[in-house]
Amino acid sequence: MSDDEQVSVQKDRIQQKLNEIRNQGLALLEEIQDEESLQEWHRSHLGRKAAVMDIMREMSSMPGELRPIIGKYANGVKQSFEKALQERAEAIKKIELERSLKKEQIDVTLPGRRPSRGRLHPETQALREISQIFVEMGFQIYRSPDVETDEYNFELLNMPPHHPARDMWDTFYTTKENVILRTHTSPGQIHVMRQFAPEPIRAILPGMCYRYEQITARSEIQFNQVELIAVGKNITFGDLKGTLQDFVNRLFGREVRTRLRPNHFPFTEPSAEMDVECFICGGQGCPVCKKSGWLEILGCGMMHPTVLKNGGYDPEVYSGFAAGLGPERINMLRHKIEDIRYFWSNDVRFLEQF
Length: 354
Ligand code: DAH
Known about the structure:
Elements: H1 3-31, H2 35-46, H3 51-58, H4 66-104, H5 122-136, E1 140-141, E2 147-149, H6 150-153, E3 179-181, H7 187-196, E4 201-210, E5 222-232, H8 237-252, E6 258-265, E7 268-277, E8 294-303, H9 305-311, E9 319-325, H10 327-335, H11 348-351
Parallel strand pairs: 1-4
Antiparallel strand pairs: 2-3, 4-5, 5-9, 6-7, 7-8, 8-9
Helix pairs in contact: 1-4, 2-4, 3-4, 5-10, 7-9
This protein binds 3,4-dihydroxyphenylalanine (DAH).
3,4-dihydroxyphenylalanine (DAH) binds at residues 184, 186, 227, 265, 268, 271, 299-301, 322-324.
């Protein structure tokens, strides 16, 4: 074989090799779907260790006349790689965009997420129910303030300073002299009487009360009360008893029995407490009613003449009855809630049950 023939054979061989490199490289490139693999391809096909580069490096040992031909050919391969790479990069950008759009796509036919529904607090429910019953009996609802003076909370209710009965109510005092948080709703009796005297009154006064007490399963430092007051001519203990019995029947149902027990409150004379038959044992005696068969739900009595006078009514002409009931207490009995602290701890697991 002549030299020329040898060079020609070598040229064909190298060109064929370059063709293979190009075809393989382009075929691989077409398969690529993501940016990262594209970078990898770039490095292996156009980087220092790429096959085309090997051939370019080998050129120095090639016969002189072969160099420009192979150089041009190899460059062509390089250029076609660079062009294809750019095209592929554009295509991949499009693929990646579509992919991310697909990820964000929402299926509008899927059912929506259900928003969690709020509900009325069990105390709100009880207060509304209690109010409803008394409103049907002709009582109006009167709002009296949570922040009171010593005068309204105690003195005008027949408890002068140092009266021992004040010990029944552990009081939150404020930094302002004589300003306290009401320990019961009874001071509202004075407010409502002073507003309406000498008109007859039938009113309920619902609201929060505050006591500086040890918090236990049975007592909280804040709780609701509903005060009941009726003032007029010829109001008797029989009216009180009938009103309360009717209330209990409407709230708990016809079949519940009640009893009045004598008690003492400075603002009523005579005073009593009302018990209802224990719901849990039906009067047989159980731990909840402490084996008595009865549960206390309210304090009540005929308004003391001094209190009537303080409200602006002549006790010789007018009489009245009053009562104070605890809605939490009633709720606990009805729903068999064993701890009063649940009411104000805002635990949804408790609240969701009502
Ligand atoms: N104020 C009393 C208390 O908090 C409850 C009470 C008892 C209210 C007798 C009354 C009543 O109106 O006549 O313990």
